Amino acid sequence: MKEIRVHGRGGMGAVTSAQLLAIAAFKDGNMSQAFPFFGVARRGSPVEAYCRIDKDFIRVRQQVYKPDYVLILDKTLIEAIDVLKGLKPEGTVIINSAEKPKLKIKAKVYHVDASKIAIDIFGRNLVNTPILGAFIKATGEVSLDSLNETIREKFPKEIADKNIEAIKQAYDQCSE
Question: What is the pLDDT of residue 103?
Answer without folding.
Answer: 84
